[in-house]
């Protein structure tokens, strides 16, 4: 489909509102998905780091009890 002007391209033969709305919603959904994935990844990594730190403290405490 060839368009004669930019405004014809934006109008999309009268369906421009629906076309651009669908593109906008799709990109919004993709952005939300990426942001949510990054946030969950960071939360998981933080939890793993906390668990490892806790395990190291427990082992250190157990070693201290064993030397007494």
TrEMBL record:
Family that this chain belongs to: Belongs to the CcmD/CycX/HelD family.
Function, as annotated: Required for the export of heme to the periplasm for the biogenesis of c-type cytochromes.
One matching Pfam family: CcmD
Protein name stated in the entry: Heme exporter protein D
InterPro entries: Haem_export_protD_CcmD, Heme_exporter_D
Gene name, Swiss-Prot/TrEMBL: ccmD
Cell compartments where the protein resides: Cell inner membrane
Keywords (A to Z) from UniProt: Cell inner membrane, Cell membrane, Coiled coil, Cytochrome c-type biogenesis, Membrane, Transmembrane, Transmembrane helix, Transport
Transmembrane segments: 20-39
Organism name: Psychromonas marina
Phylogenetic placement of the source organism: Bacteria, Pseudomonadati, Pseudomonadota, Gammaproteobacteria, Alteromonadales
NCBIfam families: cytochro_ccmD
Bilayer topology term: Single-pass membrane protein
Residue runs in coiled coils: 38-65
Domain of life of the source: Bacteria
């Amino acid at each position: 489909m060839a368009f004669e002007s930019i405004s014809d391209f934006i109008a999309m033969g009268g369906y421009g509102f629906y076309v651009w709305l669908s593109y906008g919603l799709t990109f919004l959904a993709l952005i939300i998905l990426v942001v949510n994935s990054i946030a969950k990844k960071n939360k998981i990594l933080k939890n793993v780091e906390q668990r490892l730190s806790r395990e190291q403290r427990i082992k250190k405490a157990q070693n201290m009890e064993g030397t007494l």
